[in-house]
Specification:
Helix content: under 10%
Protein name: Pectinesterase catalytic domain-containing protein
Number of helices: 0
Strand content: 35-45%
Distance between the termini: 39 Å
Keywords: Aspartyl esterase, Hydrolase
Order of helices and strands: EEEEEEEE
Pfam family, one: Pectinesterase
Number of domains: 1
Structural class: mainly beta
InterPro entries: Pectin_lyas_fold (IPR012334), Pectin_lyase_fold/virulence (IPR011050), Pectinesterase_cat (IPR000070)
Number of strands: 8
GO molecular function, one term: pectinesterase activity
Strand order of the largest sheet: 1-4-7
Largest sheet: 3 strands, parallel
Radius of gyration: 15 Å
């Protein structure tokens, strides 16, 4: 049976995200989410994930920026919980909207 989720709700469980090297003068963002109104019932949940760096980049992992996320629109809801994060994630974790 396939669970039916309301539009705009994205739960992600028990998996792996492998972060790759960004293009020159760029950075990585693991997740983006956006909503036009504060009361929209949308969002992204990443739970019990491993967020790791591509193995060949380990020695250079601090030479480029990787953020957990950023807002895509005026409002955003993203939850990353019970997950393993590498030390290559920027300490502030989130960046401001572009």
């Amino acid at each position: 049976m396939v669970a039916k989720l309301p539009l705009g709700k994205l739960p992600l469980f028990n998996s792996l995200i492998i972060v790759m090297r960004p293009m020159d003068k760029q950075f990585n963002i693991v997740a983006i989410q956006g909503k036009g109104f504060i009361d929209e019932k949308t969002g992204t949940v990443i739970q019990k994930y491993k967020i790791v760096l591509e193995q060949k980049l380990f020695n250079n992992r601090l030479n480029f920026a990787t953020y957990l996320g950023r807002p895509w629109k005026k409002f955003s809801t993203t939850i990353i919980m019970e997950s393993t994060l590498g030390d290559f994630i920027k300490p502030d974790g989130w960046m401001d909207a572009l």
